[in-house]
Amino acid sequence: MAEHARVCWLEREDPWSMESDLIARFDLPLNLDQNRHNGFHATLTKLRADAR
């Protein structure tokens, strides 16, 4: 992650208003919420369930 992850932020009074749009526009494989269209969703869901 140190080589490939990027972090940024934007201060807003209503950050939740952007969440759905950002998830739809960007490939965020670790975010399962509202992200069933991602090809990694089923695999990550199973891995997380197995880890529990």
Question: Helices, strands, pairings?
Answer:
Blueprint: H1 16-25, H2 41-51
Summarize the structure.
The protein is mostly helical and 52 residues long.
Describe the structure.
- This protein has 52 residues and is mainly α.
- The protein contains two helices and no strands.
- It has helices at 16-25, 41-51.
- The mean pLDDT is 87.
Task: Give the beta-strand count.
Answer: 0
N-end to C-end Cα span: 23 Å
SS summary, helix count = 2
Low-confidence stretches: none
Gyration radius from CA atoms, angstroms: 13 Å
Indicate the proportion of strand residues: under 5%
Features:
52 residues; mainly alpha; 40% helix
